[in-house]
Amino acid sequence: MLTPAPSATKPDPQDLLAWYDRHRRELPWRARAGETADPYRVWLSEIMLQQTTVAAVKPFYLNFLERFPTVEALAGAPAEAVMQAWAGLGYYSRARNLHACAKAVVDRHGGEFPSTEPELLKLPGIGAYTAAAVAAIAFNERAAAVDGNVERVMSRVFMVEEPLPKSKPLIRSLTAELVPEDRPGDFAQAVMDLGATICTPKRPACALCPWMRPCQARATGLQEMFPKKQKKETGPLRRGAAFVVLRADDTILLRTRPPAGLLGGMAEPPTSDWLPDYEPSRAVLDAPIEARWQRLPGTVRHVFTHFPLELTVLFAKVAKGTPAPHDMRWTPRLHLHEEALPGAMKKVLVHALGDLPGAKKASDKQPAKGAAK
Ligand code: SF4
Predict the structure, then answer these.
(1) Pair (282, 313) in one structural domain
(2) Ligand 1, from 192, 197, 206: best to mutate by most atoms within 8 Å of Cβ?
C-alpha cells in the first residue's frame, strides 16, 4: 500500500494556464492565442490523433485539409478518396466514421458542428473524449477532455491507485473539477501539452512542472508507477499468406476488402484467411490464380490492436492480358501509392517488389497505442 503525499494541496488550473501561455505547442490545427478555433479542424485533428502521434498526424492532416478544406467538401467526397487520403494512418474505421460524421454534420446541422457534448456525442465516430475536446477547444464549453496524456497527469497528481481502465470515471471527475470557468479550451490543451512534453511516461521533468508542488506521486518519488494499468490481453499470433502478382504490363493484382470489419474498404493484394493454425506450406492452395508461385524468403509481421499477424508472401509473374479474377483488378505499379493501402499491405508489397514508387516512407508507421500526442 502506497503512502499518499502528506500535504495534498489541490492543483491550481491558473498555474497550469500561466505555464501554457509560455510553453504551448504550435500545432497546425491549433488556433493561435486569442484566435477562435475552427470546429472542423479541431474535430479532424482529434480523430486523427486517436492512437497516433502528433508527428505522424501532421503530414496527413495538412494533406487532408488541402483535399477537403471544409466539412462540406469532405461530406461530398467519394468514400474511396477519403480512404485513400487516410491510407497509412491506421485504425481505418476512423476514416469511415469521419466521412459518415461529415455527412451527418451537413445533413442534420447545415454544415455547422453542434457546440455541446450531448449533441456532438450523437454524431458517428464521436465518443466521450472527442465530444469533450471539440466542445471545450472549439466552443469554450466547460467540458473535461480526458485522453491518455490527461490520464497520466491526473493519475500522478492525485496518485490514483485504481488501475486503468477501471479508474477512468474517477479520473474524469477529478479532471472535471479542475476545469476553470474561463478558458476551458486552453485548460484542455494545457493538460494535453503537459502530458506530452513534461509529464512523459518515462522520466517526467517534474522540476519544470507547474503542478510540482501539489503532485502527490512526485512527493513520493513514484511518478513512473502511475497510471497503474490492468494487464492487457493480446490475441494469439495469426498467420496467413499474401499473393503478389506482377503482370507483364507492370500492373499488380489488387482487391478491395469488404466495407465492414478490419481494414474495411482498404485495398490489398489478395490474401488467405488469417488464422492461428494457418499452415504456410499449403498457401498455394489459396492462390487467387494459377501461376508459377514462388514463396519468398522471410515473412511480413504486423501488429494490429488485438493480434499480431505474420504473412508468408508468394510471388508470381503472369503474361500480359491475364484477366483479373472476380472482384479484383490490375493496378499499374506506378499508381500503387494512390491506392488506399494499409500499412500491413504496403509492407507485403515492399517485401515482394522493393520500394513503392511515390510512397511516402514515413507515412505508414503505426505508432504504439497510447503514444504521447
Ligand atoms: S510533478 Fe511530475 S509527475 Fe507530477 S504532474 Fe508534474 S511532471 Fe507529472
Answers:
(1) yes
(2) 206
What the block records as the C-alpha cell of 280 is: 504456410
Q: Is residue 94 part of a domain?
A: yes
Nearest Cα neighbor of 211 from 10, 11, 5 is 11
Rounded (to 5) percent helix, strand, coil in the chain: 40, 10, 45
- 261 with 155, same domain: the answer is no
pLDDT digits (tens, 9 = 90+) for 343-358: 899 999 999 998 776 5
46 among known catalytic residues: yes
Q: How many residues does the chain have?
A: 373
pLDDT score recorded for residue 369: 35
The residue assigned the cell 499488380 is 252
Residue 358 confidence (pLDDT) = 59
Indicate the DSSP class of residue 207. G
Q: Domain end: 225, 257, 274, which one?
A: 225
**266 and 215 within one domain:** no
Which atom of ligand 1 is nearest the CA belonging to 209? 6
pLDDT one-digit tens code per residue, 67-94: 999 999 999 999 999 999 998 887 788 8
Q: Which parts of the chain sit beneath pLDDT 70?
A: 1-8, 233, 357-373
Q: Which of 26, 35, 46, 151 is catalytic?
A: 46
Does the Cβ of 209 fall within 6 Å of ligand 1?
yes
Ligand 1 pocket member 217 (CB < 6 A) = yes
Domain enclosing residue 152, as ranges: 13-225
Residue-level pLDDT at 89 = 85
